[in-house]
Specification:
Elements (H helix, E strand, L loop, with lengths): L1 E5 L4 E5 L4 H13 L3 E5 L5 H12 L3 E4 L3 E5 L12 E2 L4 H11 L4 E6 L10 H7 L5 E4 L9 E5 L5 E4 L4 H11 L4 E7 L5 H13 L5 E2 L5 E6 L7 E3 L4 H13 L3 E5 L11 H8 L3 E5 L4 E5 L8 E3 L7 H10 L2 E6 L11 H11 L3 E5 L2 E6 L3 E2 L2 E3 L4 H12 L1 E2 L2 E4 L11 H7 L3 E4 L1
Parallel strand pairs: 2-15, 3-14, 6-7, 10-11, 18-19, 22-24, 23-25
Antiparallel strand pairs: 1-25, 1-26, 3-5, 4-5, 7-9, 8-9, 11-13, 12-13, 15-17, 16-17, 19-21, 20-21
Helix pairs in contact: 1-2, 1-6, 3-5, 5-6, 7-9, 7-11, 9-10, 9-11
């Protein structure tokens, strides 16, 4: 499917759906919990449905209602799956499922779609091998799923590289079910805000984790019991980024509703980054709203993306819109997402007339020259697709974005939401 995007301003109010990252953590904890969980406002996207199917494979009973998911947990006694676990396009689900599988006696095969079968997993497999579990990659010489995990793992010291934060989250979540004390050592803590999110969910459901200030050492005394989840999923700050930059770049007056400024998700930093660039944005923290008056001239700034890698596509577009030079650093994790987002955004924005260059750990954008409508590729990456559509709102001429089905991974009703506030995005 393609999207044809025409230059347009926005007006009205937007409600962004629930957070993918929060929903997946809620589902996995509910699967391990003692009792019935009610997850309100879950994101009903492809990735979150993959997490739900994994929970079912591990023995949880799941029911999807209109505004909530009901999950009856296993009380820490996960079932050996009857079949191969397919995690779809969800990297977070894949990494967490590997650690959950390691707690079970027997062998579990874990795989995913074509993108997942390219995502690095060797460091996690090596770490699980330290715990008396046996883990190996099914295709020798290829650092990616499918993988085979044979448990059960034992409590003790686990050493993780830490550059891919869901690998850390998965080990922590599963450590609570082990008999004894597990100490997790992280060499290179990255995407720390997402680990903080995991800790927040664990502690909220009754599991205590000790950690140092640098997030390099964690201690989990087990076994501990997860209490059932009865909680609403907050709006997704990663998804907020796209209507936000769309409104900022166009002569718009728009409000984004239902955001939680106390959320630990690091991507909320994009609001302050845009304000620093000169955007006319008001944060209504009491009522959970962002008020935007768009069309102001912005100036480029430096942003370290180490802990907010999902913002890079949106930041690349806003950097091209802004006057002067925008630099983005801390890119190691960004290159390990659904695509190498550094390379992909560089290639596609160049088609739209943007002067953008990259080094190993730096993107340099010389902005302020505008966008030219062009035919661009999403590379089957949901955040790339949404970022390019927002660039199309201010481009001279029509922009066509190919393979937009991928937005269903995190923002299934993106086109509807944007068109309801005046965007001219036509699905072809």
């Amino acid at each position: 499917m393609q999207a044809k995007v025409r230059n347009q301003k926005l007006s009205g109010s937007v409600m962004v759906p629930g957070s993918k990252s929060h929903t997946i953590r809620a589902v996995m904890i509910a699967a391990m919990a003692n009792g019935k969980s009610i997850i309100q406002n879950p994101l009903t996207s492809a990735d979150c449905k993959s997490a739900l199917s994994v929970a079912q494979a591990f023995g949880a009973e799941c029911e999807m209602q209109k505004d909530a998911w009901i999950i009856s947990g296993t009380n820490g006694k996960l079932k050996l799956p009857d079949n191969v676990i397919d995690c779809g396009n969800s990297g977070t689900t894949t990494y967490i499922a590997c650690s959950m599988a390691a707690t079970i006696k027997g062998s579990t095969i874990i795989t995913g779609d074509a993108q997942i079968r390219r995502r690095p997993i060797k460091t996690l497999i090596e770490s699980l091998d330290q715990t008396d579990a046996e883990a190996f990659i099914a295709r020798p010489g290829i650092d990616a799923p499918p993988v085979v995990i044979t448990g059960p793992m034992k409590a003790g010291d686990i050493y993780l590289e830490g550059k891919i934060s869901p690998q850390v989250s998965g080990v922590l979540l599963s450590a609570a079910m082990l008999e004894g004390t597990t100490t997790v050592h992280v060499k290179y803590p990255m995407e720390v805000s997402y680990v903080k999110m995991t800790l927040d969910w664990m502690e909220g459901q009754g599991v205590r984790v000790e950690h140092d200030d640098a997030f390099m050492k964690y201690v989990v005394h087990g076994p501990q019991t997860y209490q059932p989840v009865n909680r609403a999923i907050p709006s997704d700050w990663s998804g907020v980024a796209f209507p936000l930059i769309g409104a900022v770049m166009t002569k718009s007056e728009m409000t984004i509703e239902g955001v939680d400024f106390n959320d630990v998700q690091g991507d909320k930093e994009i609001v302050d980054i845009l304000i620093r660039m000169g955007a006319d944005i008001t944060k209504d923290e009491v009522n959970g709203r962002i008020l935007i008056k768009g069309g102001k001239r912005l100036h480029g700034v430096h942003v370290d993306c180490k802990n907010i890698p999902d913002t890079l596509p949106a930041l690349s577009v806003i950097g091209a819109y802004a006057d002067g030079e925008m630099t983005l650093t801390g890119l190691e994790v960004v290159r390990l997402k659904e695509t190498d987002r550094v390379a992909v955004m560089q290639n596609e924005l160049r088609k739209m007339g943007v002067q953008i260059d990259s080094e190993e750990d730096k993107v340099i954008i010389k902005g302020g020259k505008g966008f030219v409508g062009a035919e661009v590729e999403s590379h089957d990456d949901h955040r790339v697709a949404m970022a390019l559509m927002m660039a199309g709102l201010v481009a001279k001429g029509e922009t066509v974005v190919n393979e937009i089905e991928c937005v269903g991974v995190s923002f299934p009703n993106f086109l509807e939401v944007m068109n309801n506030v005046g965007a001219d995005i036509e699905a072809l």
